[in-house]
Every structure is written in C-alpha cells, then in structure tokens.
Amino acid sequence: MFAAYAARIDRDQPLNGLELGERPAPAARPGWTTVDVKAASLNHHDLWTLRGVGITEDALPMILGCDAAGIDEHGNEVVLHSVIGQTGHGVGPAEKPSILTERYQGTFAERVTVPSWNVLPKPAELSFAEAACLPTAWLTAYRMLFTNAGVRPGDTVLVQGAGGGVATAAIVLGAAAGLRVFATSRDETKRKRAVELGAEAAFATGERLPRRVDAVIETVGAATWSHSVKSLRPGGTLVISGATSGFTPKSGELNRVFFLELKIVGSTMGSKEELSGLLSFCAAKGIRPVIDSTLPLDRAREGFAKMAEGELFGKIVLTV
C-alpha cells in the first residue's frame, strides 16, 4: 500500500528522512481492527519523529501520522484515538502508553491497524477531513482548556502563537465555550484571522495585554514563556503542551511564579473520553476545525514543508 514514512532520522533536516512509496499492508492481530483511511492530518509530532524524538533507528521504517478518520472493517465511519495502550486494551498489561508512530505504524497510508478500543464513531456532521483534525491538536487544546486550565465561561484566556493547530483549536473552542480569548502572533494576517475565529482581540507577540488573564495556553515555548508568565493574574494557570521555539527560556520568571502563586501545568494529548466529548461538542455547537490546506497523500512532502516553515493557519490534511 502507498504510504508516507520515516526512512531515516535527520535531526537538522528532518524532511531528508521522509519517503513516499509502497509499504506492507497491516496484518490482522487479535483485539485490533483495520481502518481504510479517508483523511489524516499532520502534527508537529510527525516532524519530531523525523528528528528522532520518541523513536529510535531500529524502529524504522515507520509510517507517519497520528490522526485519521476512515471506515472500519464493518463499514462504519470512525475516528481514531491516537494513544495506544492507554488502558491496556490491545497491548500487553505492562506496556506503557504511546502515541501512534512511537511504537506502531501510523495513519499516512491507505490502511492502518489500531486496537478496537481506539475507534470512535465519527459524527455525521463532520466530514472525514474535519474529523481527522481532532484526535491530536484539537484534543490537546480541549484538555488544556477544560481539564487542566480549569476555566469557566467568562474567564479570560491568552492563546500564544495563533496559527498553529493547537492554538487555533484553543481559540475556536474557547470562544464557543463562552471564554474571553486573547491571542498573539508575529503575523498581522494571523492576528486578523484569530479575531475572525472568535478571539476578543489579538496582539503582536510579547505585546502588553489590556488586563491580566486567568489562564495561558502555551505551545510556543522559550520565545513566549516570559510574556505568558507576566500576563497571568495572581493565582492564574499556565498550561503548556509544546515548545516549538525551544525548551529553554532566557528566564524562568521564578520570582513571579512563587510570589503570585502561579500554577504551571503540563498537558499531553487527552483521553478517549475527552475525545468523545470533543466530537460531541463540535457536532452540537457547529464547530468545524480550521483547515489550512488539503493535499492528496502523494503530495505529503509539500504539507510537511509548509508545516516546518510555519507558513500555515490551522491544520494540513492528507486525503487517501
């Protein structure tokens, strides 16, 4: 079957390790099901895999892709939950949970096999392309906002780095849930798009906000960390799920953290139950993921290049 896969690891030029071509079709295994992929979406996790993060050379070649929507063996339209082994279903009892492609072949292919427990019904209201955007970036944003930030309608949230998949999702979901959303971006066009999606206001990266916020959604990392900490009200919460600009900020702002009793919470992906809630929320509220572009699988390299350059707003979807 045709697939986009990591053939080698290149930490400096990750796209050098990306190959497109034929790979073996997935074999049947007890407790697992095979899904015909209709659409899959890119995540920064795929670039990190090409850099060798979360995977070793001996696991290659590895078909990339965490997210997908498609049709299962019984003809049902489904969405995949990307965390394998979260409850032990389909794997050994001692196996630690992993994100798809860290240990098992991914979704950038004509077919993928996952534990049957990892398959959820796709809401009829969502297209395959829209549903394929949800299991990683949108689920991450959903958990950051509603589980880890603990915000309520009327609270104010700052979303750093408008344009990225998680940030875009946080703006849309936050606005739909009655939050007051501020967003930042270096790009004026992206700031305008953020307001169109529901942000109350958008600011240049590092710009002083009109008031302090209850929570910050942080995925940028080193470049925005100081601004995130300084933007919180006393007792506020900073939730971080990524660091695309680097892991080590110039200042940890530790004096502010302890003096203002700030909370810093790490967040990774989400549970199957949270994905079910996200799917229902999108269907009930008419929420649709923001899609930057849709490409056929054989043009996956274009999508990877666009994501690596940061020249996108929303998700890139690959169709099969």
Protein described:
With 320 residues, this protein is α/β, with parallel strands linked by helices. The mean pLDDT is 94. The chain starts with a strand and ends with a strand. Strands 3, 5, 6, 9, 10, 17 and 18 form a seven-stranded mixed beta sheet that branches. The protein has a six-stranded parallel beta sheet with strand order 13-12-11-14-15-16. The protein has a three-stranded antiparallel beta sheet with strand order 2-1-4, with no helix packed on it. The radius of gyration is 19 Å and the shape is globular. Helix 9 (300-309) links the parallel strand 17 and strand 18 (315-319). Helix 3 crosses helix 4. Helices cover 26% and strands 27% of the residues. The longest helix is centred in the middle third of the chain and has 15 residues, at 134-148. It is built from nine helices and 18 strands.
Which helices and strands appear, and what pairs or packs with what?
Layout: E1 2-6, E2 18-22, E3 32-41, H1 44-50, E4 62-63, E5 69-71, E6 77-80, E7 83-84, E8 98-99, E9 111-115, E10 119-121, H2 128-131, H3 134-148, E11 156-159, H4 165-176, E12 180-185, H5 188-196, E13 201-204, E14 213-218, H6 225-230, E15 232-240, H7 254-259, E16 263-266, H8 272-285, E17 291-296, H9 300-309, E18 315-319
Parallel strand pairs: 11-12, 11-14, 12-13, 14-15, 15-16, 17-18
Antiparallel strand pairs: 1-2, 1-4, 3-5, 3-9, 3-18, 5-6, 6-10, 7-8
Helix pairs in contact: 3-4, 3-8
